[in-house]
Amino acid sequence: MANKRKRDNAPESEPVEKTEQQSTKKVKAPAPTKAARASSSSNTSAAPFKVDSTSPITIQVVAGSYDRVLHGITASITPTTTTTSPSKNNKKKAAETKTSFKVSFADTFLFNAHASAIRCLALSPPSAPTPGQKKGGQKVLLATGATDERINIYNISAHPPSAKAADDQKLLNSITPRPVLENPKNRELGTLLHHSSNITRLVFPNRSKLLSASEDSTVAVTRVRDWALLHTFKCPIPKAQGRPSGDTAALGAVPAGVNDFAVHPSNKIMISVSKGERSMRLWNLETGKKSRVLNFPKEVLMEIGEGKHSTGEARRIVWGEDEFAVAFDRDVLVFGMDCRPRCRVMREDVVGTKMTKVHEIKYVSLGKAEGQEEGEEKHVLAVATEDGRILFFDTAEESLIAPKEEAAKEEKEQQVKKHIIEAKTPNAKLVAQLGGKTAGVTGRIKDFVVLPIEDEETGKRSWFIASASSDGRVRMWRLESDDLFVKGDAKAGRQVGELLGTYATDNRITCLGAFVMIPRPEGSVESEYEFDSEESEDDDDSDDE
């Protein structure tokens, strides 16, 4: 990270480099270090949490809303194994063992966090175990950003509430309409005032740093140990070029601000996308300077519906293993490390519906396929849409779907009249879909979190997915290990996943975060009503810098 600099006003405009050499130059991505691989990212599924197949799992879910409320929920998932004995008529058939999952929700905290709508939140990796205990006293930092220009910081316990605390709250649960399992370890630490406009994105690339983006066209780097502002990346404000549809900028001003950014797993490179720009910017996190400006190809933008009368700006961006994905209003482009578009995602004939709005994208690590011993882990791209679905796409080059064959002359004339652009970019393969009308979900999925779980004995991987809709419902899903692997007889784009339960928050949710809580060690004693000092935790964080 760069040294602290005196903050200057962002320049009014900056010329965008358009040389051919620049647009084809390959980005050299450093190999992720061991610490970087263990870091948490809001857009990439973390390392799988290893559990026993018969042990219950507790997931802490945090939801932010337009109603300024920060709602904490625990989802306790209990596996139940049933064995079906063979029938009398078919005694040769072996007994079948089936595992079902039951989820129960409880409120853990309810904060009136901000003075206006909450836009984003981020969860840090858990802190190191307290000295003298194997896994006791670990915490997770929670950061929330809103349209009041503030970033609030909270301490969240990484462990489920103890049995003693549950007994103390039995009386409270008897008079409340919903179960309450409050943990007094969850408390507010303070507020950061590093920005002068709405907060748009928050990310903990590791335990020791917090990165925040805002509509003031800056990305701030904050040190967690003392919450000092280390550096501010200044993005230029674009020139006014007419008034595009949906423009909400003030009279005489232009739409400006950072929509999103993504940090490479090595913690050395960052890409940002901003309002009013048809480009993305690469930043060197070691020097604190801009590295390059990459323009989106005009032809590809026309294919995905970002034509002359659209803003053409990217809304979301996320790093993959050897690629990165950029989400626009109604489509997603996947770029290789040579910064060339590899494929698009939301082609109508592949998705099966008309182009729908994209709200969130994340990469999901599938691990190794059954019987695979060598080779890299497979990844898929998950896309949350307006019609209540989460679509999973295989973006590997060998799985891409070629563009349609050239249309006939008459069809071309009709396409010209209807302003339809002929597709020339390959499309990713649709592997599976979760939710939608088939599963009874019709509202938009505003945000979702993928939590990988791995069986300690068999090494089999599964996923719990927490999704949040604008109607205030939080849904908990479960995916089997084979749901996202396409086999020879498997149907592409098939419906997958099991809905475990739904929780109504009664708030209009805007963002969501979740993590698997660490079980308390046997015999550990922790006072629920005494706050630990932060000195030992700060010392651990300073070692990561």
From TrEMBL:
Keywords: WD repeat. Residues 1-50, 523-545 are annotated as: Disordered. Residues 525-545 have a biased composition (Acidic residues). WD repeats lie at residues 464-487. Pfam families: WD40. Residues 29-47 have a biased composition (Low complexity). The keyword Signal does not apply. PROSITE patterns: WD_REPEATS_2. The keyword Coiled coil does not apply. This is WD40-repeat-containing domain protein.
